[in-house]
Design goal:
By secondary structure, this protein is an all-beta fold. It is built from no helices and 8 strands. It has one domain. Helix content is 0%, strand content 55%.
Length: 103
């Protein structure tokens, strides 16, 4: 989307599905979490973007999946009127579930 993109973490299952998370610059030049799922043929299945409540620079730092295909991403985000917060979320089919939150 923007001019800056960086892969931070990659995870794969035994079947060959791959999940990648990293930083992507948005239209306002702030950094967001972006997580992408690729199937066994390398085809993109979905993409999820997270822009924290403060709409500042958000930085993912870890990625994992479970046996049900749920993906978990953790990192840092700037809150609305707060300093840097630890953020985690669960992603299903390219949509954050909202089960995660700032810690």
């Amino acid at each position: 989307m923007g001019s800056f993109e960086e892969v931070v973490a990659i995870d794969a299952d035994d079947e060959g599905n791959v999940w990648v998370t990293g930083v992507s610059e948005d239209a306002t030049r702030n950094h967001d979490f972006v997580t992408v799922h690729y199937d066994t043929d390398g085809v993109e299945r979905w993409q999820a973007r997270y822009d924290g409540p403060g709409h500042g620079d958000d930085e993912p730092s870890a990625l994992a999946h479970d046996r049900f295909g749920n993906v978990y991403v953790a990192g840092f985000s700037y809150g609305d009127g707060t300093h840097r917060e630890l953020h985690h979320d669960q992603v299903r089919s390219g949509r954050p579930t909202g089960l995660g939150d700032a810690l």
